[in-house]
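thread from #wetlab-drylab

HS: before we spend reagent money on co-crystallization trials with iron/sulfur cluster, can we at least see a predicted complex? here's what I'd submit
DV: go for it
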Amino acid sequence: MLKYYNYDVVFQEIPNEVTLAVNITNCPNRCKGCHSPHLLEDIGKVLDQTCVINMINKYASSITCFCFMGGDAAPHRVNDLASFIQNTYPDLKVAWYSGFTKLPKNFNTSCFNFIKLGGYIQKYGALESDSSNQHFYEIQSDGFMKDVSYKFKAKNI
Ligand code: SF4
């Protein structure tokens, strides 16, 4: 089961997209210097298909992307909901921000347009840092994960 703490429309997380980002709780990662420690707790409301429909319909055509921020405790549930969004809203892009270094086994990337991998390591910094361990990928139609992390670096913004 996935639960979420809150959601908001954001502009930085996915380049060139207006993104409805949902902050998922019960994060199993324990990144030192975590920017959102409340997301480590098993709190919030259940994120299911009905909830997703209500969120997306609230913003209707003003968003171009839906992003799962977290969900590493139940990645295959993220996968299922991503597939549901892709099938229900074919014009909407779908993204996942994960703290995993690698994708989980049997994870279906074809229902995503974007995936961010990598936990937060203070000394390396987040995506915008040149030394970041995190990577941001665009999923190509043939399944290739194209690393476009450069789009976040300060010199390219
Ligand atoms: S993945 Fe994000 S929310 Fe989870 S511990 Fe790391 S920084 Fe915090």
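DV: The CA atoms of residues 8 and 99 lie 20 Å apart.
HS: ok that's useful, forwarding to the group
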